[in-house]
């Protein structure tokens, strides 16, 4: 009669150790993949929300080129926010206050863009009821062309979207994305140029590239 040979304690421990090593190597990749899918789903939903709100704001207040948006203008930012507020469901509002945005905020190349909340320049941030955070600022045409890949000749509002709120990594092009209010409505940063969407770049233009690539990150 054949007898079954039992595993020794040492063999069991070795096997468990191997399983643990494999799990430690694969689980982070699995989690990263799950997080990426969740982030893209949140980005799609938020873009749709912003587009619909923009269409409503335009129907109420004319085309954005007539909104008289000015860089470094507190009244301009407040005006833009007031145009959108009726169409948003929010759980927090942070007019030039901390509490709605994660810091430090980094470029795609990992250098710091915003180190901490700075009251010396005005921003309006808020958090949707689904946990997505948004920050509104206004940029001059020169920066919109050079940094955001948008061909305009006027100052315009930029809506930064942090799809997982204040959670890490807080990196532009990873969990933070930019949209710009233009005469064509709410458009993704990089709509006219995505050349700077690369690991050594700043990442603003990656929003359009993600959409072009079927709502996936391929950079």
From TrEMBL:
Keyword Membrane annotated: yes
Regions that span the bilayer: 6-27
The keyword Chaperone appears for this protein: no
Top-level taxon in the UniProt lineage: Bacteria
InterPro entries with a match to the protein in the record: N_methyl_site (IPR012902), Pilin-like (IPR045584)
SUPFAM superfamilies per UniProt: Pili subunits
Keywords of this entry: Membrane, Transmembrane, Transmembrane helix
Name of the protein this chain belongs to: Type II secretion system protein
Organism: Candidatus Scatousia excrementigallinarum
């Amino acid at each position: 009669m054949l007898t079954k040979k039992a595993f020794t304690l040492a063999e069991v421990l070795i096997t468990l150790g191997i399983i643990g090593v494999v799990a430690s190597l694969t689980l982070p990749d699995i989690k990263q993949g799950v997080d990426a899918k969740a982030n893209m789903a949140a980005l799609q939903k938020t873009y749709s929300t912003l587009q619909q709100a923009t269409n409503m704001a335009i129907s109420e207040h004319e085309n954005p080129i007539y909104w008289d948006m000015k860089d470094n203008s507190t009244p301009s930012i407040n005006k833009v926010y007031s145009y959108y507020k009726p169409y948003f469901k929010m759980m927090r509002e942070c007019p030039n206050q901390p509490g709605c945005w994660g810091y430090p905020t980094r470029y795609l190349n990992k250098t710091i863009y915003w180190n901490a909340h700075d009251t010396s320049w005005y921003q309006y941030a808020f958090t949707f009821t689904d946990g997505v955070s948004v920050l509104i600022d206004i940029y001059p045409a020169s920066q919109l062309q050079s940094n955001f890949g948008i061909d305009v000749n006027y100052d315009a509002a930029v809506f930064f979207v942090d799809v997982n709120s204040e959670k890490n990594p807080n990196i532009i092009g990873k969990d933070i994305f930019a949209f710009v209010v233009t005469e064509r409505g709410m458009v993704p940063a990089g709509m006219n140029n995505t050349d700077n969407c690369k690991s050594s770049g700043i990442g603003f233009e990656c929003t359009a590239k993600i959409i072009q690539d079927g709502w996936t990150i391929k950079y």
